[in-house]
Amino acid sequence: MNARKFATAALLAIATLMTSAGAAFAYDAAATTALNVRSGPGTNYRVVGVLEQNQVVQVLECTPSNTWCRIQDRTIQGWASSRYLQQVAGGSTPVRPTPPTGQPDVGISINTPNFSFEIGTGNRPGITPPRPSGQICFFEEYDYRGRSFCASGGDSARYIERFWDNRIRSARVEGNAEATVCTDTNFSGRCAVIDRSVRNLGMLSDDISSYWISRAR
Question: pTM above 0.90?
Answer without folding.
Answer: no
